[in-house]
Amino acid sequence: MKNAVGREIPEEILKLTGKDVYRGSHYFDGKEFKKDGPVTKPVINSNGSKLVDSIHDVLVKCGIKDGMRLGFHHHFRTGDKVLNMVMEEVHKMGIKNITLCASSLGKQNDPILPMIEDGTITNIESSGVRGSIGTAISEGKLQGLAIMRSHGGRVRAIETGEAHVDISFIGAPTSDEYGNLNANGGKANCGVLSYSAVDAQFADKVVAVTDTLVPFPNLPAQITQTYVDYVVVVDQIGDPSKIATGAAKPTTDQRKLLMAKYCTDFVVQTPYFKEGFSYQTGVGGASIASTLYLAEIMREKNIHMGFGVGGIAKPMCDLLDEGLIYKLVDTQDFDEPSIENIQRNPNHFYITGGEYANPFNKGAYVNKLDFVILAALEVDTHFNCNVVVGSDGVITGAQGGHPDTAAGAKCTIVIAPIMQGRMPTICSDVTTVTTPGEDVDVVVTDYGIAINPRRQDLIEATKDAKLPLKTIEELRDIAYSITGEPERVQFSDRVVGIIEARDGTIMDVVRQIKDFEFKDE
Amino acid sequence: MINEQKKKRLRRSMMFLNGQKPSLIKDPYIYKADSLMFDLEDAVAVTAKDTARFSLFHALTTIDYRGAERVVRINGLDSDLWKEDIRCVVAADAELIRIPKCENKEMVQEVEAEVAKAEKEFGKEEGSVLIMAALESAKGVLNAYEVCTASPRMIGIALSGGDYTKDLQTRITGTGVELMGGRQQMIIAARAAGVQCFDTVWTDLDNMEGFRRDVQMIHDMGFDGKSCINPRQIDIVHEIFTPVKKDIIFAEKVIREIDTKKAQGIGVFTVDGKMIDIAFYDGAKRTIMMAKAAGVYEGDL
């Protein structure tokens, strides 16, 4: 059955998952539903501690068994040690058929690869996958399906009960013996625990894993004792040098700077650029450079950002300190200065992943965004974006908050060079749709800016500004004139993954890759 | 036939690119320099001369540089490479050859003869490839006028400050004092010969303020443009070398007034309180021409 972005979703996948095809970004707006709830084991006694000796013991206490869904967060990024540590123990215990429900997976999780091959892990639910796990999924090594969910989509899936988490392991930089958790003050700090907030509230069993036990009560707590069943103290939950890098140097890549300049030139021409505007940007070189350019204009015109959202890096914190931004709401920290900033600046706030992006609550922060500046692996002439599957057909990225912020923001801008290496980024049809074109308003490239024809208001607002405006087809034609039109990647029939829209419907499927076969001539 | 229009085209910025690096030569036009200068000389390692020439030939014949002028700096006449460089450049239809370390008219004429030979060999129209010369020594600067007038293909001369200051037994100071005489000599020679004059590169990329001062100075001296080594320098050069709105409006008034007053037999009059006579006509015309070439002119002159 064809969905609203024109992708054919196989009937057997609809049957297998019980899912519907994607029908549009606002299809579920205002539709009521009843939330799922966790099995809760009350603690009424006054015996005090929730400490358990080891990961093994806590798995036993939680009643680990075949077929369970285990939750993890990725706030420790490539420095994470918790997921591998827990899965290693699960593996040793001979447990099979686990569904891994992580907010994201990366190359740090490569050690779990054998567990995919031997059936310990048979299903994966994640924002996306980088590293050799992505390749393994694309090669068909996972027995079940990989479901790629946005950050908001994961919260929705857990809250609706579609993804009922049996046990969630929350790596916590600090904890007391009663399970008050904080992301700071320990040995491996990550600033915020936003993506695990939903696990705390909706998983049947919640296990805090820490390497820094602090006296009770560990206040302020981002996740409180009322949600936590057990606390395990281990040697190391993360490698601080890989959790947060030092502040990235501003890019000197002229192509990125050119795109950043175009982006800023566009932003300031829109009616949304006014006192109190809201803004989210990524941590790529072009995104950060465009923030820096924008700051110059904000200073010049005395315009302040009402609030900034998202994964936070140093440049946004600097603007907060300077007073150019009034408030930052933070779901993830990418560098040491932002982890330090959230502990110090009272206008830098922790929010949960649900508050950030869940489409099925009573209003997420993304809905209040004026601008979001995003990147993409591919953008097509329908403005559909792909951020998960490489042009070679292999899963190599993550949705993150891409579809959430694109849906929410009034002006969604995607920055991408028209080609990367020899591959056209602007193309006729993306390999896999992850963010629907209806939510993407502007594409900024090194060859010019294309505005989505749905946004006649933006076309009108910027028409006299002498911006290098082009149609998306013109940009694609330029790309193809240089690279040639690439042949489509060849896939086998088997579906190995689903790109889930943030509302739980199916945006696209990812099929198993196969070796390219040349046509007989 | 030599195309006079092409000789006098707008050349505010001329960006150096290492002809050996595909990533640099694949689409440098996005930064909108007026001219792109592909280097086969100093930027290319001795062992890579052949491959650089080969890849440059294919780049020039397959890539659409979208209106940017394609200039190639060939190897020095003291090498055994320059004649093959010229064959490559002519066969690939580049617009302009830059002669390095030029010191006298004979060098220009040697290149000119090879270019003519190559044009014949590859069936190109005679005179289709133009020439410019880089002056990199005291002798070259002293002979600026004879170099400028050495060939009808000559579009102009460029200062190469690094080698020139070595020859002077000084160094680039950032103040411009060491280049003062050379620059002045060159601009006078170029104007006397009716060709263009380009300034040397600014290598201190972190000192953008110094760069801006340097560009403003050579603009005020009368230079036509500046060699650039990084795209981030281009915008500043264009900003300084593009007439501002105020100047364009004034130039329009001057041209219109001179045209009407001439018909009325009036020679001297005032525009916006400034005394104007026919001597201002060419300057005003040039301002409008520059504005048009830079794409900022919206009037109807």
Please describe what this structure looks like.
The complex is a heterodimer of chains A (521) and B (301). Chain A is of the alpha/beta class. Chain A has two domains: 50-239, Glutaconate Coenzyme A-transferase (3-Layer(aba) Sandwich), CATH 3.40.1080.10; 254-490, Glutaconate Coenzyme A-transferase (3-Layer(aba) Sandwich). Chain A has 16 helices and 26 strands. In chain A, the strands form five sheets. Chain A has a ten-stranded mixed β-sheet with strand order 1-10-9-6-2-3-4-5-25-26. A nine-stranded mixed β-sheet of chain A has the order 14-13-12-11-15-18-22-23-24. In chain A, strand 19 (419-420) and strand 20 (423-424) form a beta hairpin. In chain A, helix 9 (254-267) crosses helix 10 (285-301). Chain A starts with 10 loop residues before the first helix and ends in an 8-residue tail after the last strand. The model of chain A has no long low-confidence stretch (mean pLDDT 96). Chain B has 301 residues and is α/β, with parallel strands linked by helices. Chain B has two domains: 4-240, TIM Barrel; 245-293, no CATH class. Chain B is 45% helix and 15% strand. An eight-stranded parallel barrel of chain B has the order 1-2-3-4-5-6-7-8, surrounded by four helices. In chain B, strand 4 (96-99), helix 5 and strand 5 form a beta-alpha-beta unit. In chain B, helix 3 (49-62) packs parallel to helix 4 and helix 10 (208-221) packs parallel to helix 11. The longest helix of chain B has 19 residues, at 245-263. Chain B is globular. The chains are: A alpha/beta (521), B alpha/beta (301). Chain A binds chain B through residues 254-255, 257-258, 446-447, 481-482, and chain B through 26-27, 30-31, 63-64, 230-232.
